[in-house]
Amino acid sequence: MSNKANDPSLSSWISVSPNSDFPIQNIPFGVFLTRDDVITIGTRIGDYAIDLGALHQLGYFNDIPLTDDIFLQDTLNDFISDGQKTWRLVRDRISEIFDSTNPILRENIEHQKTVLFTMEEIEMQLPVQIGDYTDFYSSKEHATNIGSMFRDPENALLPNWLHIPIGYHGRSSTIITSDTKIRRPKGQTKPKGADKPIYGPSKMVDFELEMAFITTDANKLGETIPIEDAEKYIFGLVLFNDWSARDIQKWEYVPLGPFNAKNFASSISPWIVTLDALQPFRVASPSQTPEPLPYLRQKGNNSYDINLEVSITPEGGVPTTVCKSNFKYMYWTMSQQLAHHTSNGCKVLSGDLMGSGTISGSTPDSYGSMLELAWQGTKPLRLEGGQTRTSIEDYDTVTLKGYCSNDEVRIGFGQVLTQLLPAN
Amino acid sequence: MSNKANDPSLSSWISVSPNSDFPIQNIPFGVFLTRDDVITIGTRIGDYAIDLGALHQLGYFNDIPLTDDIFLQDTLNDFISDGQKTWRLVRDRISEIFDSTNPILRENIEHQKTVLFTMEEIEMQLPVQIGDYTDFYSSKEHATNIGSMFRDPENALLPNWLHIPIGYHGRSSTIITSDTKIRRPKGQTKPKGADKPIYGPSKMVDFELEMAFITTDANKLGETIPIEDAEKYIFGLVLFNDWSARDIQKWEYVPLGPFNAKNFASSISPWIVTLDALQPFRVASPSQTPEPLPYLRQKGNNSYDINLEVSITPEGGVPTTVCKSNFKYMYWTMSQQLAHHTSNGCKVLSGDLMGSGTISGSTPDSYGSMLELAWQGTKPLRLEGGQTRTSIEDYDTVTLKGYCSNDEVRIGFGQVLTQLLPAN
Q1: Boundaries of CATH 3.90.850.10 in chain A?
Q2: Rg of the Cα trace of chain B?
Q3: Which of A175, A400, B102, B166 could pair with B137 in a Cys bridge, judged by C-beta atoms 3.0 to 4.6 Å apart?
Q4: CB B272 within 8 A of CB B22
């Protein structure tokens, strides 16, 4: 895999602070509304958003096979459909344009005025039109914790879990991006000891720390994707907060899984970090025993070392980090998830989003949900300032952050931030 | 509700046989490819498809507020977004244009040449881009049958079932229309007595007899839809065959519900019959005990009397009707389903599709799946010609049909026909 843009020795003529998530080696993709109320596709270096539609109109991508309006769209779906070869050509070209040794745009102030925006001048949008959203359940620690609480601690992991990357379908229409506020959902619950259910605001709103990958067109109806090809259909990843109402979930989820407990909102970070940019951070995934069936078997390093954290900020208060986890804890890899998803011929398209499932590690401070962190309300979390929490309260803001780093470079995802408003 | 087009005394200058599903009182909506390879939105009377794009260009809808290209699209989503008032104006206008007493188009042979197609000249397409697909589980008889087989006959119906119109999210990308062939899915199963799962072609492919409704834009994120308003967001209905692989389902479905057992294909009939056209066939739904919570409570007749049947045709053989059921058997109504779906603020959009769940009646010949008809393989069905079936075999064609009728008029759905090919 050749990714010139990943060269750690590169630096940009746009100044980038050392702890920025967006050095020239990142080059994520997103969609934003400019100061002129135009929607465009863009990327980001340091604290500048870059209008790729304008760059293309100015001829900077002329010898790359792209349609004229590929970046003048309100979603990335068509660009993602163009496939891996095109993504790489574009990412490498952006890397060249902003390389500190390249004077062409660096010395063209008129072009810069058209192309560069400070982050305050723009408003990030949902980056893709999500056709289908699937959520997996691929952290062994999370599945074990939930099985212990909702079912039987002695048999927490169900018999199929070690054989299948278990997943289920979710709701696309309520996936929102960072800074979109949500309402506490109402729903049916059956309070402990009650003989009848009630309808009202959920009393147990929770976050779920996840990541999600976004695919390109991968197959035709009836075709499978071999596991060794799966990664080439993955465009990139985002942070993903799969909001959950635990009291609604408990009452509704048997036998067909969570429904209204989850479909009121899920939040994603606005910049899609490409799988290409993450290549320096490949690591082994946990060893799998029993060995998976052949269609799920793979060799080498198939996970990614991505540091994750969650903070809660009460209204007018300061953030408290309540969880530190890592994407590499996932038992099932993205390739295994995608190979399994298509193992029956299910069609995968550009803009489909697949969530990892809650990413919990083995220590209690790495659990990826309040349900686990406060262990069903029995161990309230103490926040900076003295308040405690067993679930998310009205006006709390939940923020997910994620980044990779090594001695040479830091590639980050920025954040996804969501405030919970009271029920209507 | 005023629906001039429903007047049973109307007749069309296009001849319609008495047992046609498509008299002038139906006026369904669909999308088709014409003999000139153009995609257009159309309707159908008798055995003629009518190009609404061409009619609009010829000025027949001039005084109705419609954009110029509203029918020159490859999906109905934008027209559905226009809302109930517009659907009714258009349907009433079509009724006027084809009324036997109206000479305008009847006597304009040149216009007819542009507008009318025989069914052989066109190719029906998927009528909507389906954003989100939800499947409910609303037949009490079906839920009881499945609970008896998969769990415990003594407690077949789970405690939440009589309180919640249970539903789950499905896969939009694999919804296909009639005449699209599908492949037998492969997947993970755990054969009886085996200590490990295997991967290979499903041995228990099944149909599910369902109907599905298609919505318009209904609410904003966080808003609920009161049950008394729910029907105005329902554009119309189609026949729906929710293909299922029972052996995959059995192994994968606990705890998050069916996934690969269902997402390989679901088939819909190509003509969307409007809820307006079905008004003469409103009937009471089954009485509900215990009384639902207030947000699900409704008065009056809230179901529809739609006769349904399923046939199986082996390769080179004749069709055998294996099931006769009726939409009115559903315990939960469409209004209850939609009110429940949005009771937590979940956003519903134009083109969303909501399946009823398998529609089983109380007698064994009304069960809506092979799983129930052949009772888990213990009661093989005998087909015309002597073959037997406990599940769908390679090259079998499964056909769903549906119609309403009273003394005055018959309103039908046509059919959805799907042939199962062997696994790849």
Answers
A1: 133-421
A2: 22
A3: B166
A4: no
Tell me the CA distances in angstroms from B12 to A39, A200, B16, one per residue in order. 48, 52, 8
Q: What is the pTM of this model?
A: 0.97
CATH 2.30.30.230 residue ranges of chain A are 4-124
Of B142, B163, B169, B341, the catalytic one is B142
In B279-391, beta strands by DSSP E: 282-283, 303-304, 307-313, 320-326, 353-355, 381-382, 388-389
A19-69 per-position pLDDT tens digit: 999 999 999 999 999 988 999 999 999 999 999 999 999 999 999 999 999
Interatomic CA distance for residues B222 and B201, integer angstroms = 42
Indicate the residue of B169, B188, B352 with minimum beta-carbon distance to A163: B188
Interval B396-408: pLDDT, tens: 999 999 999 999 9
CATH for B133-421?
Answer: 3.90.850.10
A345 vs B170, B256, B264: nearest CB: B264
Give the closest-approach CA distance of A122 to chain B in angstroms. Answer: 23
Is the Cβ pair A343, B186 closer than 8 Å? yes
pLDDT at A358: 98
Closest approach of A245 to chain B, Cα-based (Å)? 10
Residue A16 to residues A105, A122, B409, Cα–Cα distance (Å): 17, 19, 73
pLDDT at A36: 87
Using DSSP, state whether A84 is helix, strand or coil: helix
Q: By CB neighbour count within 10 A (0-12 exposed, 13-18 middle, 19+ buried), where does B376 fall?
A: middle
Length of chain B: 424
Q: What percent of chain B has pLDDT over 90?
A: 98
Instruction: Tell me the C-alpha distance between B253 and B242, whole Å.
Output: 16
Other C-beta atoms lying within 10 Å of the C-beta of residue A59? 9
Q: Which helix (H) or strand (E) holds A341?
A: helix A334-341
